[in-house]
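Sample intake sheet
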Amino acid sequence: MTVKFFAYLREYTNCKIVDFPYQEDIRKLTQALSETYGNRLREKLLTPDGTDLGEEIIILVNGRHVEHLGGIDTKLLPTDTVSIFPVVAGG
């Protein structure tokens, strides 16, 4: 599965794109990414108790927001592309 990181998240992962081992859903993927890349990424990806997605993150699967697919329990396929963006404010 392909995972793409955007904006300052690239600083946390030291990469823009990675072929990451397949995970069956967004919950398992965010947990695995947190284990691989550390607490700074985890703090953005997940709520403090780890039960839901963080409020400062947008995750797309093949261009579709997980909010419209099943949230943290969105199922994944090995061929999926997951894009992870921080929420950006501005004017």
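Comment: The chain has one domain: 2-86. The longest strand covers residues 81-86.
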